[in-house]
Design brief:
Elements: H1 2-29, H2 33-42, H3 45-86
Helix pairs in contact: 1-2, 1-3
């Protein structure tokens, strides 16, 4: 699971570097520097939002799998108790 976390964080960092910083400096040096300033001030929001949503999704998947595993083990214990009770 840590590998998936690493991939998500790595993707967000790449998105921040190339989608935010590089694009912001390209706009600053280009025809419309106001857009570059606005992009540098506000362009970090989508990658951080995506990182938060992906983290929430991964935590949900982990919690769901742990719940199903715990439910299966609890069911096995209950079945063993039922068998011992009948004997």
């Amino acid at each position: 699971m840590q590998f998936v976390y690493f991939l998500v964080i790595f993707g967000a960092v790449v998105w921040l570097i190339f989608g935010w910083l590089v694009r912001g400096f390209i706009h600053l040096m280009g025809i419309n520097p106001e857009l570059g300033v606005a992009w540098l001030l506000l362009g970090w929001i989508p990658p951080v939002f995506a990182l938060v949503l992906s983290r929430i999704t991964l935590e949900f998947f982990v919690a769901t799998s742990q719940t199903s595993r715990d439910t299966a083990s609890a069911l096995a214990v209950l079945e063993r108790m039922e068998i011992k009770k009948d004997s």
